Amino acid sequence: MSSVVIIIISLVILFMYAKDINKKKFSTKEIVMIAMFSAISFILYMIQFIRYPQGGGITLFSILPTMLLAILYGREAGLTGGLIFGLLKLLNGAYVVHPAQFLLDYILSNMALGLAGEFGREKKSDMFKGCLFASSLSVLISIISGVVYFGQYAPEGMNIVLYSCIYNISSAGVEGLLSSIILVLLPIKRFQKVLKLSTN
């Protein structure tokens, strides 16, 4: 039953995304930048410092380019970049136990990173809040996936929710926090000037 609910909610979200994208006309430059940032995320994803069972771990700030893309080019570009990044992850060996789990771990959790610019991109504090929000939402989606589909891996006697929280926060959560800190230290204004982007 939980899988059916997850699939329905996922399809609704993807439908809303598709509807949003239809209104947005990406320029050739934006398409190239989305592809480039997604590719960089995937390359960094392949550099893993710590590898957990069932596909988790800590990578070389692989989520940072997708969040930066969202801040520089907006939500639609960020969501699209996250979607492409999630699909590219399949090339490095997918750990899929159910279609709903695939949607959570490879699609929605990565698309969530595209919401990094939702709190604004004028102030560093707003960008930091946006990055924390996006990475936290991504981790939350992974936690839900862990509770529903990977509870059997929890140590005997340990609460499944606690296990999933520890597993995901100690990996994706740590990487999300560090990536958020690094991102706000980057010269975003200079990037926007070089790329000739409007901050409105």
Short description:
This protein has helices spanning 2-23, 28-45, 64-73, 75-88, 99-111, 124-149, 160-185, 188-194, and strands at 48-51, 57-59.
Verbal overview:
The protein is mostly helical. The chain has a single domain, classed as Arp2/3 complex 21 kDa subunit ARPC3 (Orthogonal Bundle), CATH 1.10.1760. About 70% of the residues lie in helices and about 5% in strands. It contains eight helices and two strands. α2 packs across α4, α3 runs antiparallel to α4 and α4 packs across α5.
C-alpha end-to-end distance: 44 Å
Low-pLDDT windows of residues: none
- Counted by DSSP, the helix tally is 8
Share of residues in strands: under 5%
Shape: globular
Strand order of the largest sheet: 1-2
State the CATH class: Mainly Alpha
Order of helices and strands: HHEEHHHHHH
The figure for the number of domains is 1
CATH topology: Arp2/3 complex 21 kDa subunit ARPC3
Rounded mean pLDDT is 91
**Class from helix and strand fractions:** mainly alpha
GO molecular function, one term: thiamine transmembrane transporter activity
Keywords: Membrane, Transmembrane, Transmembrane helix
Protein name: Energy-coupled thiamine transporter ThiT
Organism: Paraclostridium bifermentans
